[in-house]
Hints:
The protein contains five helices and twelve strands. The chain has helices at about 10-25, 85-110, 110-125, 175-195, 200-205; strands at about 25-35, 40-45, 50-55, 60-65, 70-75, 80-85, 135-145, 150-160, 160-170, 210-215, 220-230, 245.
Amino acid sequence: MxxxxxxxxxxxxxxxxFASLVCAQGFYIESTRSGSSDVEEKMYYMPKMFKSVSxxxxxxxxxxxxxxxxxxxxxxKKTYAAMTFxxxxxxxxxxxxxxxxxxAKRLASLPPDQREKMQERMAAMKNRPSSSGATHEVVxxxxxxxxxxxxxxxxxxxxxxxxxxTVWASKQVxxxxxxxxxxxxxxxxxxxxxxxxxxxxxxxKQIDGFPIETDSHGSVRTVAKxxxxxxxxxxxxxxxxxTKEKNRMPGDPGSGGE
Length: 258
């Protein structure tokens, strides 16, 4: 009797294949940021979730793009702050509204001739090119070097024609595309919130490869280790025992704002 092996789409087989794909989507990254002092940084990534741990004080930030929420944790005090994208947008809009109110009150207090001159200056400022209209250019220099085992290509980022950053990026990091798409989505969302029309991540989108080393005005961040691994969902949660702090608007008592 002949035996036939049939490869069907069994639920068990599909679930195992899906699980293996999910496990391959995470990253654990260690890097060093040098400038006035060296800072060790760790980053964890799973789709729609980022976590960074920075410095000796272990400052922690968690981005849950799936929840549209950013968390900042203080391990020493066992406290955390959480802000949704909607709350962030309201805070920015409120800050603009307060600034407009303050300016209106200031104008009202000026003599007519000074008020007219101030209004002319304000009109001239509004007509100037703003940062939201900045031009971004990414230049591939054709230079190559190996950094911590990764073959990298050199890019120069220019904003309004002036050199802003030098980036050494590698195409030798498999599975990076989902992470890059998530970061691009976050930068686009932040651009909309602060009114920058998507230009916060304009240069990032043009870099071909994983940024292994980035030099921005003398502050150099170098990736030392990249592990392609599954990160537990619990890593992106606020630990038990932490107390939530109240979000404060700029200018509120205790906010530290002006």
